[in-house]
């Protein structure tokens, strides 16, 4: 039975686990400060891994590799971090391969967190048995990953398949951090939400105007309470997610679109509306595309460890 060390870095927490084949034996979350950088975090990651391995009666010698996923663009061919955006600003300069060899005596596989989450859902979650899948994660940003004929979609540009959050959903939309305008992320993500809210008619009279930190949980709560602006903003976000989903379906032709992220706490409000829009507007001559919620939560990337190690091995053999 093959074991692997799996680490997924987020903006405020890291998930660390030990995988045996497709089974997550044990896992732990630790708090992190992504803006402090990656280098200061490495000793804590090592200590946590050592503790989890000991808990299972294992050592790193029982593992075939380390997998690290993070919110960055990753060049899978060269196993390097190609670009970062705010989180872990030093990541492109840290020699993570050397760290894994020194800490565990193991090779390291790097991956974008959204792609790892998709592979986790394919391995042990909502997309098991499927070969053509798109995943969108709705939270602070909008993450995206694509599986085509059972293979993670990658291109020579490291953003290939990862920028579904930056397809245009509004021609006269807001300027996005990526440089384009009207992106899905700039219209309906956690970081954009306060900015979009301020542009809504009647905002100054809305309860939202008095919220010091507007997030999706607060937005949905005020919508439930009958705040007109909040309800209109919820509709705006759902329409943006729906339009973006149709665009991704037309681009990649998936069997299924999996939605993850914090917004899915309101899956019963969000997903039926997206399904209805897709049914009306998507051209899918081979049959309807499933719109489903992810099943594995923030542990999904950990389940991808063995699959990613195998893919990296196949790539080295070519």
UniProtKB/TrEMBL annotation:
It holds the Pfam family ROK. It comes from the Bacteria. SUPFAM superfamilies: Actin-like ATPase domain. InterPro entries: ATPase_NBD, ROK. Belongs to the ROK (NagC/XylR) family. This is ROK family protein. It comes from Silvibacterium dinghuense.
């Amino acid at each position: 039975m093959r074991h692997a060390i799996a680490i997924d870095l987020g903006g405020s927490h890291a998930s660390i686990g030990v995988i045996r084949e497709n089974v997550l034996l044990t896992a732990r979350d630790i708090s992190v400060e992504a803006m402090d950088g990656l280098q200061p975090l490495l000793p804590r990651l090592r200590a946590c891994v050592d503790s989890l391995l000991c808990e299972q009666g294992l050592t790193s010698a029982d593992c075939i590799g380390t997998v690290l996923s993070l919110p960055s663009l990753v060049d899978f061919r060269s196993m390097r971090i190609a670009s970062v955006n705010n989180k872990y600003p030093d990541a492109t300069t840290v020699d993570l391969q050397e760290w894994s060899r020194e800490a565990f005596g193991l090779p390291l596989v790097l991956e974008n967190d959204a792609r790892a989450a998709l592979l986790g859902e394919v391995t042990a979650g909502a997309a098991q048995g499927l070969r053509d899948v798109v995943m969108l994660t709705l939270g602070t940003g909008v993450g995206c990953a694509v599986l085509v004929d059972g293979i993670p979609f990658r291109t020579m540009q490291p953003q290939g398949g990862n920028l579904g959050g930056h397809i245009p959903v509004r021609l006269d939309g807001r300027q996005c951090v990526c440089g384009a305008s009207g992106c899905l992320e700039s219209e309906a993500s956690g970081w954009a939400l306060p900015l979009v809210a301020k542009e809504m008619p009647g905002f100054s009279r809305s309860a939202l105007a008095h919220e010091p930190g507007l997030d999706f949980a607060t937005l949905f709560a005020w919508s439930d309470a009958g705040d007109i602006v909040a309800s209109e903003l919820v509709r705006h976000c759902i329409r943006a997610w729906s339009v973006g989903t149709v665009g991704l379906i037309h681009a990649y032709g998936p069997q299924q679109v999996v939605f993850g992220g914090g917004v899915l706490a309101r899956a019963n409000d969000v997903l039926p509306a997206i399904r209805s829009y897709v049914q009306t507007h998507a051209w899918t001559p081979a049959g309807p595309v499933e719109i489903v919620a992810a099943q594995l939560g923030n542990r999904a990337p950990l389940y991808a460890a063995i699959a990613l190690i195998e893919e990296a091995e196949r790539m080295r053999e070519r």
